[in-house]
């Protein structure tokens, strides 16, 4: 019985999950080719848009990242995808870069010694010929797993022990910070809201704690109380909610900077590990690679609110300028907690953070 093309032993999967070594059924549906390399092109927003599958015989297939492709594990590169029960003359094997209905395949230029298109395919003889009587088994090559970004290990129990436990309840920590600065209006307003009860599941409550820690350090130059308030957030794990995590993230970045200014580099390293902990939660290698590329691009091209600050200066609006500079300071602290980026080093970040602190405090 003759089966229709590609009717046996194939599976469908997204093009983004293709790996080197997969046998991809070509667009004509009659042949398959082994994938030699897989590259991913992203759009301007960092989302995977195009998968470039380089075939082992030459040529490149361009496939939309979300398209479904058929992969077979019992057909070699360039072989027919159907497995008929009738025997007969076998057509000469065509390289994957040869003529095919796939218009997206880009053939690789042949060298001067390569046979022409009309040259017959060499026939394997002797021990090279595949057949039932051949005792030489072909070596099975297992394709390597795709390279995934290095996993970020979280802090251990001994590391977490370096973060001091709060002295009393969270509300008492906030009250102590407010009593240390009785004339600070910003601290008073935030502490009054938090004194009613601190709910770590509330995004607004987490935002108030983060704002209070920044107010204590940036405006009032009180690193001790700022760390005490920030540690109420720093021990919270990532729960999958990016809005709530934003407040914890800002608190961890601030705490890392304060500890490095106080010479507590080991404690600062723990805060930085906690800050990067969500990066290790993605288990899919393909998604992890894409997330790493997007994350690195955001670090290399951060939004430092230059236009907004210059507009506030031109409009002679010091309050708006201060608000935008605070946002810029948070962005710089976040970069510093990541050890800088490919475009801004740690020394330059230290200089910029110092300038922003001086501007905001003035």
Question: In terms of topology, how is this protein built?
Answer:
Blueprint: E1 10-14, E2 23-25, E3 32-42, E4 48-55, E5 60-64, E6 68-72, H1 157-160, H2 170-179, H3 185-194, H4 203-219, H5 223-234, H6 242-261, H7 265-276, H8 285-300, H9 306-314, H10 318-337, H11 346-361
Antiparallel strand pairs: 1-6, 2-3, 2-6, 3-4, 4-5
Q: Share of helix among residues?
A: 40-55%
Q: What does the radius of gyration come to?
A: 30 Å
General form:
elongated
Strand order of the largest sheet: 1-6-2-3-4-5
Termini separation comes to 86 Å
Work out the strand percent.
5-15%
Low-confidence stretches: 1-6, 81-112, 119-143, 146-153
Give me the secondary-structure category: alpha+beta
Q: Average the pLDDT over all residues and give the rounded result.
A: 78
Main beta sheet: 6 strands, antiparallel
Run of helices and strands:
EEEEEEHHHHHHHHHHH
Number of strands: 6
Helical stretch tally: 11
Q: How would you characterize this protein structure?
A:
- This protein is of the alpha+beta class.
- The protein is built from 11 helices and 6 strands.
- The chain has helices at residues 157-160, 170-179, 185-194, 203-219, 223-234, 242-261, 265-276, 285-300, 306-314, 318-337, 346-361, and strands at residues 10-14, 23-25, 32-42, 48-55, 60-64, 68-72.
- The chain has a 6-stranded antiparallel sheet, with no helix packed on it.
- It is elongated and about 80 Å long.
């Amino acid at each position: 019985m003759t089966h229709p093309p590609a009717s046996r032993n194939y599976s469908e999967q997204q093009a983004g999950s293709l790996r080197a070594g997969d046998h991809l059924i070509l667009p004509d549906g009659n042949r398959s080719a082994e994938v030699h390399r897989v590259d991913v092109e992203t759009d301007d927003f960092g989302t995977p848009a195009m998968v470039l599958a380089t075939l082992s015989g030459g040529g490149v297939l361009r496939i939309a990242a979300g398209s479904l492709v058929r992969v077979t594990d019992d057909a070699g590169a360039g072989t027919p995808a159907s497995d008929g029960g009738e025997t007969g003359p076998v057509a000469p094997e065509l390289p994957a870069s040869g003529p095919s209905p796939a218009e997206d395949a880009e053939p690789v230029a042949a060298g001067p010694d390569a046979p022409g298109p009309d040259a017959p395919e060499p026939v394997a003889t002797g021990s090279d010929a595949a057949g039932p009587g051949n005792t030489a088994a072909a070596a099975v090559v297992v394709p390597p797993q795709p390279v995934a970004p290095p996993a970020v290990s979280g802090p251990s129990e001994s590391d977490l022990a370096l973060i001091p436990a709060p002295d009393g309840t969270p509300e008492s920590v906030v009250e102590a910070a407010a009593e240390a600065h009785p004339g600070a209006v910003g601290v008073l307003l935030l502490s009054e809201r938090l004194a009613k009860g601190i709910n770590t599941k509330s995004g607004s409550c987490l935002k108030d704690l983060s704002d209070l820690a920044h107010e204590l350090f940036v405006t009032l130059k009180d690193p001790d109380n700022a760390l005490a308030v920030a540690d109420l957030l720093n021990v919270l794990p990532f729960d999958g909610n990016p809005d709530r995590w934003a407040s914890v993230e800002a608190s961890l970045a601030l705490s890392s900077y304060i500890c490095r200014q106080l010479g507590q580099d080991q404690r600062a390293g723990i805060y930085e590990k906690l800050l990067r902990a969500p990066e290790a939660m993605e288990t899919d290698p393909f998604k992890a690679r894409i997330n790493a590329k997007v994350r690195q691009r955001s670090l290399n091209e951060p939004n430092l609110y230059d236009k907004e600050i210059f507009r506030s200066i031109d409009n002679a609006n010091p309050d708006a300028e201060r608000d935008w500079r605070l946002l810029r300071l948070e962005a710089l602290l976040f970069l510093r907690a990541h050890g800088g980026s490919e475009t801004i080093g740690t020394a330059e970040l230290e200089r910029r953070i110092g300038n922003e602190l001086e501007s905001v405090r003035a």
